[in-house]
Design a protein that fits this description.
Helix 1 packs parallel to helix 12. Helices cover 35% and strands 15% of the residues. By secondary structure, it is α/β, with parallel strands linked by helices. Strand 3, helix 3 and strand 4 form a beta-alpha-beta unit. It has 2 domains: 115 residues, NAD(P)-binding Rossmann-like Domain (Rossmann fold, 3-Layer(aba) Sandwich), CATH 3.40.50; 182 residues, NAD(P)-binding Rossmann-like Domain (Rossmann fold, 3-Layer(aba) Sandwich). The protein starts with a strand and ends in a 12-residue tail after the last helix. The chain has a 7-stranded parallel sheet with strand order 8-7-6-9-10-11-12, with helices on both faces. Strands 2-1-3-4-5 form a 5-stranded parallel sheet. It has 12 helices and 12 strands.
Length: 321
């Protein structure tokens, strides 16, 4: 008899086919987010679950799913999962590292360039019929080339962002929990800096840290005040790393020039203050959203799940056995 699993959100047909070879699949292809009580009921007889960041896997849910042996997230982050509670029950937790690094770095650069050159503001200006001709001071933006880039969080994605900065001949500063080895730091032409120095010197501050209690509101009013008035903040990491209310106030007051954001506190409930601002570029958490990358993420989660439930070793387990 095949182990039973739930796939909580819509996935690609080839992923379902792969899972179906080894597992009995209950899939939410309607892609309607499952309410907590519905998720609990559908997991009651399941051995595994392939879930998304929108699914909260907590101790109460685990208590209602006594057969559960594996929780496989379609994401790198896993702050939606109570990992200690899973570990206490011997449940494997996995994620999808590496497959989305380059695509997310591309999106960070999209936000950086669009924000610097006021692209969404310029498009609205054109679409609204306000463009009547060329003039010298029209929608003046900021140069990215030769500017100073500050990266907070220099893991795989941070390093991919820094590699792209070489082509723009930027000076790269980074802050991390620990300094990178010289063999990684040197090819990136990146220099380790304290947080205060990075915030004070960078023209573009890019956040690439996971969300946790330690990084909650890592950037708030005090940190924004340390940045240059001409600086730009980019966040495509996680909502909650930035105090959104403080950022809205800083953007409105001109404390910093602009921001580019792919993630938000309490998403998808966007703080409406952002919508009244012209100096912010907004996107709806699409950092990894290309066909190739999202397919790779889902297949990685599927391989983790099959391995966990058929006697193998999940390649991306995040909690100890």
């Amino acid at each position: 008899m095949k182990p039973k699993i739930l796939v909580t959100r819509e996935v690609f047909a080839e992923v379902l086919a792969f899972l179906g070879e080894e597992l009995e699949v209950d899939s939410n292809q309607a892609d309607i987010a499952l309410a907590p009580e519905v998720l609990r009921e559908r997991l009651r007889d399941k051995d595994g679950v392939m879930c998304a960041l929108t699914d909260r896997i907590d101790a109460a849910l685990l208590a209602a799913a006594p057969r559960l042996k594996a929780v496989c997230n379609i994401a790198v982050g896993y702050n939606n999962i109570d990992v200690p509670a899973c570990s206490a029950r011997g449940i494997a937790v996995t994620n999808t590292p590496r497959v989305l690094d380059e695509t997310t770095a591309d999106l960070v650069w999209t936000l950086m360039l669009a924000t610097a050159r006021r692209l969404t503001e310029a498009e609205a200006y054109l679409r609204n019929g306000e463009w009547t001709g060329w003039y010298l001071k029209q929608l003046l933006g900021a140069d990215v080339h030769h500017a100073t880039l500050g990266i907070v969080g220099m893991g795989r994605i941070g390093q991919a962002i820094a590699r792209r900065a070489l082509g723009f001949e930027m000076q790269v500063l980074y802050h991390n929990r620990s300094r990178l080895p010289a063999e990684i730091e040197s090819p990136l032409c990146a220099r380790y800096a304290g947080m205060d120095e990075l915030l004070g010197r960078a023209d573009f501050v890019v956040l690439q840290v996971p969300y946790s209690p330690a990084t909650h509101h890592l950037i708030g009013a005090a940190e924004l005040a340390q940045m240059k008035p001409s600086a730009v903040l980019i966040n495509a990491a996680r909502g909650g790393v930035v105090d959104d209310a403080a950022l809205i106030e800083a953007l409105g007051r001109g404390t910093i020039r602009a921001a580019g954001l792919d993630v938000f506190e309490n998403e998808p409930r966007l703080n409406p203050g952002f919508l009244a601002l012209k100096n912010v570029v907004l996107s709806p958490h699409i950092g990894s959203s290309t066909h190739a990358t999202r397919l790779a993420m889902a297949m990685t989660a599927a391989r983790n799940l099959v391995a966990a439930l058929t006697g193998g070793t999940p390649p991306n387990r995040v909690n100890p056995r």
